[in-house]
Predict the 3D structure of the following.
Amino acid sequence: MAAMRYLNSKLAQQIDEELMSAAGAFSLDQLMELAGLACAQALATVYNKEKYPRVLVCCGPGNQGGDGLVAARHLGMFGYKPTIWMPKPGSKDIYKRLQQQCTNMRIPTLEPSQDTQSLRSALSSSDIILDAIFGFSFKPPVRAPFDAALPLIAKSGLPIVSVDVPSGWNVDEGKVDDIALDPDVLISLTAPKEGVRLFKGRHFLGGRFVPKLLEEKFQLNLPQYPGVSQIVELPRAEESSDSQKL
């Protein structure tokens, strides 16, 4: 089988747009739901709720944060106790609806603030972090309040599960900034991005929604998902050196 392809930021954006075009026929809600479910499943696969019940879900203001809100809801359904830190809530209707769905699950959301005190407090009473702050459209530098938040998260000593691209990483070049997070687990969505090629932790692929036509058009060569799972674990970086660049 041909090697799986890693996507640069331009191609990742193109595939996203095609998925939601008239031809792709997906809505943003659908893709977020499937992506967030995959993220929740990946976290639950590695960190069981008996030992790691309290999940701090850190959300950015864009689609990445939307994935985080969906994941928080599913984690609540799975029996975890998530708390949401979203200092700059997205203004679009979809984010408001996703947040209301979490509220309906009795999942607390910290009061939005430029101050990091509530984050400090939440970190001290959490067992694990789901990093859904920045996605593949992130462009440096890291701005407030996230510039102060990322070092706090990194120094917390808690396990970190990052969504798609670890927050602060360059999508094409990887970790080039000291402020960037260094997660234990990564859940790539649709297809892994070029910047995470050398990621050394446990790496999952999620978002089991890429249609055959799109996979063939972009020669993604995605691995087969096991059974009915929304995720598939990828070989560690040192185990795989033949993946192609696109």
Q: What stands out?
A: The CA atoms of residues 164 and 190 lie 9 Å apart. Confidence is low (pLDDT under 50) at residues 241-246. The two ends are 17 Å apart (CA to CA).
